[in-house]
Amino acid sequence: MTTSSSRRFRKVAVLMGGDSSERDISMLSGTAVAAGLERAGYEVGRVVVAGHDGVYLPAGTEAVFIALHGAFGEDGGVQSILEEMGVPYTGSGPESSRISFDKILARASFELAGVPVPAGVVVRKGNQADFSQIGIPLVVKPPKQGSSVGISIVKDEADILTALDEAFKYGDEALVEDFIPGREWTVPIVVGEVLPIIEVTPKLDGGWYSWKAKYKSGGTTVYTFPEDDPANVPAAALVRDLALRAFKAVDASGLGRIDFRISSEDGKPYALELNSIPGFTETSLLPKAAAKRGIAFDELCAMIMESAKCG
User: Fold this and answer.
1) pLDDT over threshold 70, residue 206
2) Catalytic residue list contains 273
3) I need a surface site. Which of 102, 141, 289, 294 has the fewest CB within 10 A?
């Protein structure tokens, strides 16, 4: 536990907002984190970021908790600015953030580290693509978006072009991957500790963990802890090891969450992505895993805050 006497920082700032497609979720995360840090005894400045031009911190700010989801927050932009300012911040550095945010770069790093990923191909806007190595159904996603923004599950080959058009709304590239039928497990990591694995079972959108399933309250998604069942322990041990390997493969630090699909055909796990700034809303996964581990929300915020570094 992080006590007031062991803290390095007293006056901190929480960055939230931004102008990405995940602004609203960032505002929810930042507001929750700021309140948690205040309850933990910090003097907290709430900084609502408007764009990518800069960051203006309250006078005397000693460290920053980054709760900016999406572009600028997770792609290394704000981290580079804070490095130049010499202000410690939570999470991964600029280069690690840049790689993690780009699903194409992240999956390449995972593969080099021996972490399995679904079969996939990168499609550039205006170019032809060969999908012969990928079966139907498949997943089409913009590589630099989070919260399931722009993602389509294609169950009919005739719908591929429509799905690509949706992904191209967010950039000139699309990542097309084999859809892995089975279970969805996510592995949060905080300050070097792998927290309990969470299994996500959405009730909406045909079982897909869509934006609505992620953030709509009212029991639309079931969250369980597969390690509570002894039958899952061997698979969970493998997934934990793969999560740490993926985390290290992109040189991540502080916190992160690695999402996996567990194939219903052969039980093999496939890494989908690494979220370098996971959500902190009331339905977010990392706080759920921390609570399972016995770490209260305010303590979790303080642990992450105290892990802040610069360079």
Assistant:
1) no
2) yes
3) 294
- Residue 96 clears pLDDT 60, i.e. is over it: yes
Question: Annotated catalytic, 257?
Answer: yes
147 is catalytic: yes
Give the right CATH number for 99-116+180-292 from 3.30.470.20, 3.90.550.10, 3.40.525.10, 1.10.357.10: 3.30.470.20
Separation of alpha carbons 140 and 144, rounded Å: 12
Asked if pLDDT for residue 281 goes beyond 90, the answer is no
56 is catalytic: no
Residue tagged active-site, from 261, 279, 284, 298: 279
Residue 286, C-beta contacts closer than 8 angstroms, at least 6 positions apart: 188, 190, 195, 255, 257, 278, 279, 280, 300
Annotated catalytic residue: which of 178, 273, 298, 306?
A: 273
Name the pLDDT band for 130 (thresholds 50, 70, 90): confident
279 is catalytic: yes
Please indicate, yes or no, whether the overall pTM of this predicted structure exceeds 0.85: yes
Which listed CATH number (3.40.190.100, 3.40.1350.10, 3.90.550.10, 3.30.1490.20) goes with 120-178? Answer: 3.30.1490.20
Q: What is the CATH number of domain 4-91+300-306?
A: 3.40.50.20
Residue 275 appears among annotated catalytic residues: yes
